[in-house]
Amino acid sequence: MYQFSKIVNSLRTSEIRDLMGLATRADIISFAGGMPNDDLFPIKEINEIYNNLAGQVKKTAFQYGPTPGYPPLLESVKEYMRNKGLPVDDNKILITTGSLQAINILAKVFIDPGDVAIMENPSFIGGISAFKSYLADIRSVPMDQDGIIIEKLEELLNDKKINPKLVYVTPFFHNPAGIMYSTERRQQLINTLKGRNIPLIEDDAYGELYFDENDKTQLTPIKAVAPSDLTVCYTSSFSKILGPGMRLGWMLVPPQIYEKCELCKQSMDACSPNFTQVLANEFLVQGKIYPYIAELRKIYKERKDIMINVLNEYMPKHEDIKWVEPRGGFYIWISLPEYVDATDVLKKTIEGGAVFVVGKTFDPDAKKNNFIRLSFSNMPIEDIEKGVKIIANSLKPFIK
Ligand SMILES: Cc1ncc(COP(=O)(O)O)c(C=O)c1O
Questions:
Q1: Quick check: helix, strand or coil at residue 55?
Q2: Sign of CA dihedral 319, 320, 321, 323
Q3: 315 touches 389 (CB < 8 A)
Q4: Residue with the nearest Cα to atom 3 of ligand 1?
Q5: 240, 277, 373, 375: residue to mutate for ligand 1 pocket, most atoms within 8 A of CB
Q6: pLDDT tens profile 164-175
Q7: What is the C-alpha to C-alpha distance for residues 21 and 18, in angstroms, rounded to an integer?
Q8: Cα–Cα distance measured from residue 116 to residue 128, given in angstroms and rounded to the nearest whole number
Q9: Which protein residues are within 6 Å of ligand 1, measured from CB?
Q10: Is the peptide bond preceding residue 291 cis, with omega within 30 degrees of 0?
Q11: FRET partner for 134 with CA separation of 20 to 30 A, picked from 158, 317, 337, 386?
């Protein structure tokens, strides 16, 4: 018998992973992955960038780099963040190996075993796992279509017994809920947290992928408008834009927190890939990023429109089968009547030739399962209708 650590023994095995293992047929239509579209990666631009690099920079790309990040990239990300209105001069940027590493580092910095971490329900599975892996006691707060429900959050914050260490939220194009926080809800969240000495982790992995220019004013990060008595640790990523294979994200945090995070990163991987940092930096400094993202927005919006249309057409009509039309990002979150177990629907859907992710994957308590997450980002466009029909037909027998 091996004597595994408490941490590893606390991680749950997933029946979902086993089910997903069945969904490997080459012709299966997958709405499951939260990944960008394969055909949109900037392969041509990155080829050109690499070929035109000076020999010395190519050597740097292959070498270890400084823990905080490749210095030119730190500068270019700083300007990129400044353009979003973020307070880059009073905070520090740490380049991380994907933004999941940024969340992991922040969890490590703040959480001792048994400490309470508050997060939304549903929540990004990677975030749930990151906090669990430091043995956090996760308390979750339900959401509606405008964001986290403030009254429920206040109940937890005011509970003297639990002493929360941090709050983690994804305000823009939530994974899996697909929503963006309303300006009012964002402000209420700020008002609720300020002065409490509880840091907010703001995960902004999708904020650039909005579908409507008119929404831009609502997309100002909390970090950009937070008062001085609210500490916000902001995380973001190139994954949903340039590609997750780059494994590049970052955090923007106050200097005192940064120092601890840099220490943690040193022992995790010493530095993020210098190779992709060099390429991403050139992509930014050569001004390629903005036209490229503008193109992505158009294409993901087109896919979202198709998915919404076919859902309206094929899903069973029922007052408890609903979704909010996303205004950006990759996901549509469908709620089903409470008596429906999405895992049963998934089994039938896989038999029919499609796959999605069930709700409880995103519930920190791994219970609520009358939801399904559909991603519209990465399947052949003509498969969207075919796949939604399969899901709708698989769902029908379960509806009373
Ligand atoms: C909400 C959210 N945050 C963070 C991440 C982490 O992405 P990465 O580590 O590739 O930057 C993801 C990826 O799915 C996500 O959906």
A1: helix
A2: positive
A3: no
A4: 205
A5: 240
A6: 999 999 999 999
A7: 5
A8: 12
A9: 34, 98-100, 124, 126, 170, 175, 203, 205, 237, 239, 244, 249
A10: no
A11: 158
Instruction: Look up residue 19 and give its amino acid.
Output: L
Q: Give the span between the Cα atoms of 296 and 310, in whole angstroms.
A: 21
Tokens representing 231?
Answer: 């500490």
357-358 and 371-375 beta bridge pairing: antiparallel
Give the tens place of pLDDT for each residue, 302-341: 999 999 999 999 999 999 999 999 999 999 999 999 999 9
Q: Name the residue at shortest CA distance from atom 2 of ligand 1.
A: 205
The CA distance from 133 to 394, in Å, is: 35
SS3 72: helix
Structural domains of the chain in order of their starting residue, each with its CATH number: 6-42+291-398 (3.90.1150.10), 57-285 (3.40.640.10)
The β-bridge partners of 328 are 210
Determine which residue's CA is closest to atom 14 belonging to ligand 1.
34
DSSP structural state of residue 210: B
The amino acid that residue 97 corresponds to is T
Which residues lie closer than 8 Å to 262 by C-beta, 6 or more apart? 67, 68, 94
Q: Rounded to the nearest whole angstrom, what is the distance from the C-alpha of residue 99 to the centroid of ligand 1?
A: 6
pTM of the prediction?
0.97
Query: How many angstroms does the Cα of residue 203 sit away from the middle of ligand 1?
Result: 8
Residue 124 CA to chain centroid, in angstroms? 6
State the sign of the Cα–Cα–Cα–Cα dihedral 303, 309, 314, 320: positive
CA dihedral defined by 383, 384, 389, 391, rounded to 10 degrees? 110
Tell me the pLDDT tens digit for each residue of 7-20: 888 776 666 666 67
User: Residue 399: which residues within 8 A CB-CB, separation 6 or more?
Assistant: 316, 318, 321, 337, 340
Closest-lying ligand 1 atom to the alpha carbon of residue 236: 11
Q: Whose CA is nearest to atom 12 of ligand 1?
A: 205
